[in-house]
Design goal:
Length: 234
């Protein structure tokens, strides 16, 4: 679906680009609304289109043969999908799935590739973002191994708010269980705990952040560490 109202500068990567790079790429940008659950790039596929989210959040999802899956990292308005595979000119190593519905700017990967060859400044910005993504993936791996579910859930909800600009989003406990690679009963216990603390309110499949302060207090230290890396890529 084509959307109609958003500014490319709402995406931090685009905002960090030089004016000449924006001028070269802007005619090929198309704003799209991405429904929740859509897979925009599949594991093993060549990256044909990259997405610069503005209100959507997309997850890099690893799937296993037994049907289980988990999120390695997510991409919101701080970045672009498929970046590592794009820079390496390799097939994507995971599914890129829309986690939170919203708008994103679609850009043909070839257009970005051609521009990178002509612009050392753009390459520098993309390499800086790739480094941040690597740090996030490493932090996520250790966080999932060390921290309990409630701090991880608080951190994840805050991250989604930061990366979409939304205070409320369509999300079920089943979605969270899949994303966090834990049992639904475990998610439910943490969900109830954050609700009792006043951090979130949930109704009919929609969760709303009621108190950022409560969630920040409940979140693990990984939230602050990664948020500091999110604020600037220029």
């Amino acid at each position: 679906m084509v959307s109609t109202a958003a500014d490319p500068n709402d995406n931090s990567l685009w905002a960090a680009m030089a004016a000449e790079d924006k001028a070269a790429l802007r005619p090929q940008l198309i704003l799209r609304h991405l429904p929740q659950g859509d897979v925009v790039t599949r594991a093993g596929e060549t990256v044909e289109v990259v997405y610069l989210p503005v209100t959507a959040d997309l997850a890099n999802v690893i799937r296993f043969e037994d049907g289980r899956s988990g999120m390695a990292t997510n991409v919101g308005r701080q970045g672009v999908t498929g970046l590592a595979a794009f820079l390496a000119d390799e097939p994507c190593g995971w599914d890129v799935e829309v986690q939170i519905a919203g708008d994103a700017w679609a850009l043909p990967a070839d257009a970005l590739r051609h521009r990178v060859l002509e612009s050392p400044l753009l390459l520098r910005v993309l390499m800086r973002l790739t480094h941040n993504n690597q740090v996030e993936a490493a932090q996520n791996a250790v966080c999932n191994a060390v921290h309990t579910v409630t701090p991880r859930l608080a951190r994840w909800l805050l991250t989604i708010k930061d990366r979409t600009g939304q205070d409320a989003f369509k999300l079920t406990q089943d979605d969270l269980a899949t994303t966090m690679s834990v049992r639904r009963t475990t998610v439910n216990a943490s969900w109830q705990e954050l609700g009792k603390l006043g951090g979130i309110k949930a109704s009919r499949g929609v969760v709303r952040i009621a108190s950022r302060e409560v969630l920040e207090h409940a979140a693990c230290e990984c939230y602050g560490a990664l948020r500091r890396r999110m604020v600037s890529i220029d």
